[in-house]
Write a structure and sequence with these properties.
Elements (H helix, E strand, L loop, with lengths): L17 H4 L1 H8 L6 E2 L14 H12 L12 H13 L5 E8 H11 L7 E6 L3 H10 L2 E8 L5 E2 L1 H7 L4 E7 L11 H13 L3 E5 L24 E6 L11 E7 L2 H17 L10 H7 L3 H22 L4 E2 L8 E2 L2 E2 L4 H12 L1 E2 L1 E2 L12 E4 L4 H22 L1
Parallel strand pairs: 1-13, 3-4, 3-6, 6-7, 7-8
Antiparallel strand pairs: 2-9, 4-5, 8-9, 10-12, 11-15, 14-15
Length: about 400
């Protein structure tokens, strides 16, 4: 036998995905028979959330009609048209391309791949969704994180953004509402961000996958609606708002000045054509979802608001923990007074079976520690988990700090 070893590509060395990477430890703990309380995965279908029936019916009907082959590379006409009407309702104009992808994740991957060369960079929110840093590693992009301001409700820190841009910066990413913090960008902050992007010829990647999941009467501002001439790709999808992450249906909406964007749009479409198409029958659920009955969102937000309140109150009642009140999505990102949140989370899982994700997996300011919780589970599960976290934290501080 040869001693030859297949060496993986260097580009994979720094790829991590904290949300799922933590599962290895959780699985080992579960083997011991310990009761596990999972607060790490943002999948509504694992809990008491269901998608709207009319969207499922439309998808099922498409399958029965045998729309099971390849779709057009950018998506079926009825779905693309429905996404455009939804974009217009959000105030987005000057639209030049819409494409449907295998989840918003693929749209993000395609758009970054079509834009960024080796050694160039994209301003990425910190804390932020780890997909972006994983793709950056794959593309061998230079890291260029900008911070969200915890003292200002996790709004993007505009001054920090201004200090980070350089001649190699191609774009800026905004996740709004934000994962992992649950923050909702204010008009004032978004206006400053879009003005800065226009002044510096940056493409804006606007990840708005949670745009309908807002609490306390808050409104979502789509950043592309603020300036029709800004170069923006707005990402959306069915996964979160319509409770079907397994459908893997997302999209991108390119808006701005046509002459500025035409070559970039063609580059995006080259990649879309090369991968053939996104899931076909599920695309027939898009018009039903976007233009049908939205009452499932009202039901979902009643649950999520109650569970957000429980999360906020219980975590803030613990000396040494502090949590900014989320306004959207279904995540909270509490600060914890420990030296190492990776160690804290690992010990928490081993001791209590409560599975959260360390803040380092999403990025955070040096010298701070956080963890992310998903407050999708039922009230009684959350209450039990937070009581366990409270008791464990007191013990942890005595043993390890």
């Amino acid at each position: 036998m040869s001693n030859f070893i297949v060496k993986p590509a260097v580009r994979t060395e720094n790829i991590t995905y904290a949300v799922r990477d933590i599962i290895g430890l959780a699985n080992e703990v579960a083997k011991s028979g310990k009761e596990m309380l999972y607060l790490n995965i943002g999948d509504p279908n694992l809990y008491d959330f269901v998608p709207p029936k009319h969207m499922i019916d439309a998808t099922y009907e498409a399958m029965l009609k045998n729309y099971n082959g390849y779709a057009p590379s950018s998506g079926i006409k009825s779905a693309v048209a429905s996404i455009e009407r939804e974009a217009v309702r959000k105030g987005i104009s000057n639209i030049h391309d819409i494409f449907i992808t295998t989840g918003a994740s693929e749209a993000i991957d395609v758009c970054l791949t079509a834009l960024v060369n080796d050694g160039e960079n994209v301003l990425t929110p910190t804390p932020g969704y780890p997909l972006y840093t994983a793709i950056a590693s794959k593309l061998q992009m230079m890291e260029n994180p900008y911070y969200l301001d915890e003292s200002n409700g996790w709004q993007p820190d505009i001054e920090d953004i201004k200090s980070k841009v350089n001649e190699k910066t191609k774009a800026i990413i905004i996740i709004n509402p934000n994962n992992p913090t649950g923050s909702n960008g204010s008009y004032e902050t978004l206006k400053q961000l879009v003005d800065f992007a226009v002044e510096n010829n940056l493409v804006i990647f606007a990840d708005e996958i949670y745009d309908k999941l807002l609490m306390d009467g808050k409104k979502h501002v789509s950043i592309a609606s603020i300036n029709k001439d800004a170069s923006v790709v707005t990402f959306g999808g069915l996964s979160k708002n319509y409770m079907v992450p397994g459908f893997r249906i997302g999209w991108g909406i390119v808006s701005g000045q046509k002459e500025v964007l035409k070559d970039y749009i063609e580059a995006i479409n080259k990649l879309l054509r090369a991968r053939l198409s996104a899931n076909h029958p599920e695309q027939y659920g898009i018009p039903a979802a976007l233009e049908g009955d939205q009452s499932h969102i009202t039901v979902a937000m009643e649950k999520l608001t109650r569970r957000r309140n429980l999360t906020y109150e219980m975590l803030n009642s613990v000396p040494g923990l502090s949590c900014v009140k989320p306004e959207g999505a279904f995540y909270a990102f509490p600060k914890v007074e420990v030296k190492n949140d990776n160690h804290f989370v690992a010990e928490l899982i081993k001791e209590t079976g409560v599975v959260v994700v360390p803040g380092t997996g999403f990025g955070q300011k040096p010298g701070t520690s956080h963890f992310r919780v998903v407050f999708l589970p039922q009230d009684e599960v959350l209450e039990k988990a937070y009581k366990s976290i409270t008791l464990f934290y007191e013990k942890y501080k005595n043993e390890f700090e």
